[in-house]
Amino acid sequence: MKKIIISLFAAVAAVSCVGSNEAKIELALDGGAGKNVIVSILNTDEIAVVDTLKLNDRGTATCKVAASKGNPQFYYLSYGRRLLSSLILEGGESVKVSADTLGRNLVVSGSEKTAALLEVNKLVDNSNQLLDSLATAYQNAEIAGDAEAAQSAKHSLGTAYRDYKLAAIKYIIEHPYEFANVNLLYQRITPLLALFADSKDVVYFQRVYDSLSVKYPSSRYVERIGRDMKMYGDALAMDGQIGSANEIAFPDIELPDVNGQKIKLSSLLGKPFILYFWTSTNAGHKMINHELKSVYEKYHPKGLEIYMVCVDVDKKSWATTVKAQELPWINVCDGLAEASPAVGLYNITEIPSLFIFNSEGDIVGKNVLNTNSLCSILNKIVK
Q: What's the predicted TM-score (pTM) here?
């Protein structure tokens, strides 16, 4: 009897060892004996490594991560460069994950939110695979000069994108309180095209925010949706400015600089200026910055300004690059990457993109990245 009581106590202790401010992950990786698995967390603007699991000779390991009750966190398990599993964890949860080193045969138990996330990920993966195959078919038809096949593939691409977005909207509407909707809102078709990229998609951000903010008022992810929702709302207001030629000759944008100070593009009216879209993670773009500095040094004393928009998510990395390169002009970034209202307003389909404006706000050149050609245009408008 004493042994039974001791066994029961041990079982209770084993269950209760997960605190309310932590979650437990038990991992079994087929073929992973002696290997390392990385545990990362999504910090809204970046993914940060929180632990490295050394698997034993059976390919198993256990760890605990920070996760409070009522405040779910996104975690990721990775082996090498391969994502094994995405997780949504709350405090007090104990999750079991099993897979092989290729991420196949994934089974996760102990978290209803993670189960919903895996369902969303399945929709995302299937849709992206279809879009990738259709994009390849389109490119091959273009290369082969087969106009009919290219047109057919292009039509199929549009249909696949529409179906993907409708399926995502359907999920959001049918599962308003699922935390996995956070992940769905920020899916990308390409690095420069978000699934919910239209400024009018603010209604879906609003729907998810209204549902989750009641259930998870202290969530940083929900707070981020609220901020982005405001940006989308601002973009809708901006849309109305496009046709107001009597007030301004171009769509105005207002984005924060490295100090958080918002600066309007329209504040440059009366001077010739360059609007430039780039990303701080691309080495080629940094080289262009170096060449632009010589252009700026030559023409800034005569009035030229540069308004440089970084299409990045990681604002810390962007600010570090701006300071390291000592970029002397106006540098702005809202951390929304391709979902930024500025990208939509100027119909940016490739990065880098550059617009040259005269002092009246008229566009007199576009995507002129060759220094000599750029100077040729500037000589005409900078006096």
A: 0.59
